[in-house]
Each structure stands twice: as structure tokens, then as C-alpha cells.
Automatic annotation (TrEMBL):
Ligates lysine onto the cytidine present at position 34 of the AUA codon-specific tRNA(Ile) that contains the anticodon CAU, in an ATP-dependent manner. Cytidine is converted to lysidine, thus changing the amino acid specificity of the tRNA from methionine to isoleucine. The N-terminal region contains the highly conserved SGGXDS motif, predicted to be a P-loop motif involved in ATP binding. HAMAP family: tRNA_Ile_lys_synt. It comes from Amygdalobacter indicium. This is tRNA(Ile)-lysidine synthase. It catalyses: cytidine(34) in tRNA(Ile2) + L-lysine + ATP = lysidine(34) in tRNA(Ile2) + AMP + diphosphate + H(+).
Length: 516
């Protein structure tokens, strides 16, 4: 059995090394049978040029956790180059941040992982989730009404982002400390390095044991006579995952013996299907005409934006020709790609879908805003759908100033209306002005009475800029963001510009006046 398990593991290891070419492996080891089996599998088979390191998080939730730390530290294989332990004050962090113990422990572990990898691209955190964990995860997601992403279960390789504000809070309050010394008399707790934490906001997790069963790992550690620790909280059915592991999954396995393997196959199949779906969506001709403005401006640390514009030049979008199921799937995939950790209830997702349909069928100039959660909100104006998430704001607070969002999202609005601006006219000649404007020209904000000429078949008519802006659906709160090029002391306009959006070194000008 041990040889069969090693063969399966080597297949995962060889593919990973070939594809990723890692330089460092940080194994998250609790001292339990799963992580201990993975430790020795790596120690025996990891290529020598790859650094093998072990990290351990001492959660301080059980009396025996201290003894488990010392036992692990004393039994590490010689292949391990570095052992880093963290003391996590889960109870204090959960109390101060109003989190459950499970969520608090997970956030502290993730901060520890990010600290160890320190933002290095070739450093990976190796986790010991196996096929039984995969089955439990898929069942849990199904019971909670998960979508397609939940049916994928646990990803074998995934980058996890940790908000810099969370890491900073954890460090400053001392919720996570380094443990030095491997015996009680030598043990010390030291502060985390601030310079390292500023850079350590992500880590990439690798899970090579997902194809392996729990019973295979137990047989492996027993065959090697490894002294593993047992976490008694794993047998408390009060926790959701434990209930599935202890009661639901055994009942399913008794009736359907291959439940674990089949659920693992389901997760892999759904993952492959979504990969193919994403490829087809990305190469669809109609979808390609949707303007993704998500990168229209530089974001601050921790901020995320999904900004989709369905406004075509003729005010009609080819996107509408797609079946509704395809449009909704596109929205769902965009949400997952931009916000992989955003957990939405069905009501919240229905709200997003409602504004999504309004953007397609009933565009209007009024700004609509829905708060999804305290750090995430959704805005709709005309045919621009924008979802904005920031750890710097509390959108649910009663005193929240909405003008901050208008200011923050200004460029997305202007980029959206770039399709219908500048001025519509039959001006035929383009001029480029570099450097200073001619003496008879000025660049100024819009004023009442500003007009431009529109040439028709038989005559030239004046058209007020205010009328043009009203008919163009540009919201009035964006008018101050516009500037016009005109003759000095004249209300006659030659061109319309976005303030702080156009590069001032070069202007595009439409005019019939050759003296320019």
C-alpha cells in the first residue's frame, strides 16, 4: 500500500516540479497524520535543489497544543532546512474582530503562510488536504447552495490574497508571533517583521494529496511508525465539517462505497468544464465587444473593481443577442475572476443580476447603488455595471459619504461615456496640437450658452452643448469633469475633453478652421 501511495504522490510531485519549477516549499504541518505523511513523502522524494521548510501554527485552543509543538519540532527529518513556528492568539483575535474561532484561525494561518513565502513567486505553501477533505468540501458547498465554483471543491493549486490591512492589524495587535526555541525553557515569542509583512500579502497553495484517500495516508504513517498527534476537536460534530466527516459521509460511503472518489471526479470534471467555458466566453465575438474597464485606474492595496460597459457606439450592444443563460454565466465568471473570495448569498446575487438586466434593457442616467456587504457595493448608471470592494471603507455605516464613491469611480464613468464623446458632428478634418495652444484659443470648463456648429445638407446650424449633453445621457454630476476648446471670448466650441483623463501634451481637435 505504501508503494502504491508513493507512486501516486510522485506523479503529482513530478508534474508540479515540471510545470512550476519551485525553489522553496513551505509545508504547513500540524503534526497530524495527514501533514506528517506529506512531510515524509516530501523529505524522501523532493529534488535536492528545492528547499524544504516546515511551518507550524500553534493555535492555543487546546491544552495539548503545546506538547504537539515540541513533539513535531523534535521529530523533523534531516531533509528539512528551516522550521518556523507561529503562536496564534485565536480567541483574542476572534473576540476583538467579532469572528468565529474557525474564521479567526484561518485568517491567522493565512497571514503566517504569507509571512513565510514573503511574496516570492517560486515559494509555495504545501497543504495536506486529501480526497476525503475534497468530498467534505463539495458536500458542504452543495448544502450551502453553492454554484459551479463550489462544485470544484478545493483547488490543487491556488493563489490566496491576504488584505494588507488584515496583516497589519494582526501584527500590530500581536495576534500572531514567532516562536523561537524548541523546549519549554528556551521558548520565546518575538514580534513579526514589519518590513516583511508589508510585502507578504499573498501566497500560492499547493495540495498534492487530493488524489489520495485518508485511509491510505493512515496506513502509510502506521507502516512507517510515525508518532502523529490527534486533534480531539476533529471529533466534535458541532462543527459543520466534522458533522459531514463523522456522520454524513460514512452513511453515504456505506450505501455508495465509492462516494469519496466519485465526488473527487465530480470536482475535477466541473473544474475542467469551467476552464473550457471561460475559454469559449473569452473568444465569443459578441462578448468581446463588452468593454471591461476594470483597469481604468490604479487601485489602492486591497481594492478590487469589476466594471463592465455595454454601451456601443450606436447605443446598442451585440451582447443582447446572446441567450440569457450565456449572459448570466458570463457575469458569474467575471465575478469569480475578479472576486474569488467574495461569498454572496442568493439574495445578493439576485440583486446583482437585477442591475445587470437593467443595464441591458432599461438604461437610465440615475445612479443606482446597492451595498452587498460592508466593504463591497455595486453601482449602475446607464449601461455601466460597476462592483467595487475596498477594505478602507465601511459602506454600511450610516455616516458613509457617497460622494467618496463618485470621486473614486469617476474615471470608470468617463471611460464608459467615451463611446459617445467627443461631440457628434460632421467635422471632417483632424488636427493635432502639441505644446501650447494658439493665442486665439483657450481650454476651459463648460459654460451656459456654449454651442457648436452642425453642418447639414443645405445649412449650418448651431447646437447648444447642454442639449447635446442631455441627449447623450451623460449624467449632470459628470458635467464638471468636462472641458471645451474654444476661441477666446467666444462660446463657439471646437472640441470636448475629459478633465484629468486626456494627456495634456497632445490634443485631438476637430475643426474646419484652417488657420489652426
Amino acid at each position: 500500500m505504501a508503494d502504491k501511495l508513493t507512486k501516486k504522490f510522485l506523479e503529482q510531485l513530478n508534474n508540479f516540479v515540471k510545470d512550476r519549477q519551485p525553489e522553496k516549499i513551505w509545508l504547513a504541518c500540524s503534526g497530524g497524520p495527514d501533514s506528517l505523511a506529506l512531510l515524509w513523502l516530501l523529505a524522501d522524494n523532493l529534488p535536492s535543489e528545492i528547499s524544504l521548510n516546515v511551518l507550524h501554527v500553534w493555535h492555543n485552543l487546546r491544552a495539548e497544543a503545546e506538547a504537539e509543538y515540541y513533539k513535531l519540532a523534535a521529530s523533523l527529518p534531516k531533509r528539512v532546512q528551516k522550521f518556523q513556528a507561529f503562536y496564534a492568539d485565536v480567541k483574542a483575535y476572534a473576540h476583538d474582530c467579532n469572528l468565529s474561532a474557525e474564521v479567526a484561525a484561518r485568517e491567522l494561518r493565512r497571514s503566517a503562510y504569507a509571512y513565510c513565502t514573503n511574496g516570492e513567486e517560486k515559494a509555495y505553501v504545501c497543504l495536506a488536504q486529501h480526497a476525503d477533505d475534497q468530498a467534505e468540501t463539495i458536500i458542504l458547498h452543495v448544502c450551502k447552495g453553492s454554484g459551479m465554483n463550489g462544485l470544484c471543491g478545493i483547488a490543487s493549486l491556488k493563489r490566496h490574497l491576504t488584505a494588507p490591512e488584515t496583516v497589519k492589524q494582526i501584527k500590530n495587535a500581536g495576534y500572531l508571533k514567532l516562536v523561537t526555541g524548541t523546549c519549554a525553557t528556551e521558548r520565546q515569542f518575538s514580534e513579526l517583521s514589519a518590513s516583511t509583512l508589508n510585502n507578504a500579502c499573498f501566497y500560492t497553495a499547493w495540495r498534492p494529496l487530493l488524489p489520495l484517500l485518508k485511509k491510505e495516508l493512515l496506513e502509510y504513517v502506521k507502516a512507517r511508525k510515525l508518532d502523529y498527534s490527534v486533534d480531539r476537536t476533529n471529533y466534535d460534530p458541532h462543527y459543520e465539517r466534522n458533522f459531514i466527516r463523522l456522520q454524513l459521509l460514512p452513511a453515504l460511503t456505506e450505501r455508495f462505497p465509492q462516494t469519496v472518489e466519485k465526488l473527487g471526479n465530480l470536482g475535477a470534471t466541473v473544474e475542467r468544464t469551467l476552464q473550457a467555458t471561460d475559454y469559449l466566453l473569452a473568444n465569443n465575438a459578441q462578448i468581446k465587444k463588452v468593454r471591461d474597464l476594470s483597469d481604468a485606474q490604479k487601485l489602492e492595496a486591497g481594492e478590487k473593481v469589476l466594471a463592465l460597459s455595454f454601451l456601443a457606439a450606436d447605443n446598442k450592444s451585440d451582447f443582447l443577442t446572446l441567450p440569457e443563460t450565456v449572459r448570466n454565466l458570463y457575469l458569474e465568471r467575471q465575478l469569480h475572476n475578479k472576486f474569488p473570495d467574495l461569498l454572496l448569498s442568493r439574495t445578493q446575487y439576485n440583486n446583482i443580476q437585477h442591475l445587470f438586466n437593467l443595464a441591458l434593457y432599461r438604461p437610465c442616467k440615475d445612479l443606482r447603488l446597492i451595498i452587498l456587504r460592508k466593504d463591497c457595493l455595486m453601482l449602475l448608471i446607464d449601461r455601466l455595471l460597476l462592483i467595487y470592494s475596498s477594505p478602507h471603507f465601511n459602506f454600511s455605516h450610516a455616516s458613509f459619504d457617497r460622494s467618496l464613491i463618485y470621486k473614486k469611480c469617476r474615471k470608470y464613468f468617463l471611460e464608459h461615456y467615451a463611446v459617445i464623446l467627443p461631440l457628434k458632428s460632421n467635422w471632417r478634418r483632424y488636427y493635432r496640437l502639441s505644446g501650447e495652444l494658439p493665442e486665439n484659443m483657450c481650454l476651459r470648463t463648460i459654460l451656459p450658452g456654449d454651442y457648436f456648429n452642425v453642418n447639414t445638407a443645405n445649412s449650418c446650424k448651431r447646437r447648444l452643448l447642454s442639449d447635446y449633453l442631455h441627449k447623450s445621457n451623460l449624467p449632470e454630476f459628470l458635467w464638471p469633469e468636462l472641458m471645451v476648446l474654444s476661441e477666446k471670448n467666444s462660446r463657439h466650441l471646437y472640441h470636448l475633453f475629459y478633465k484629468n483623463l486626456t494627456k495634456w501634451q497632445t490634443f485631438s481637435l476637430l475643426s474646419n478652421d484652417k488657420k489652426l
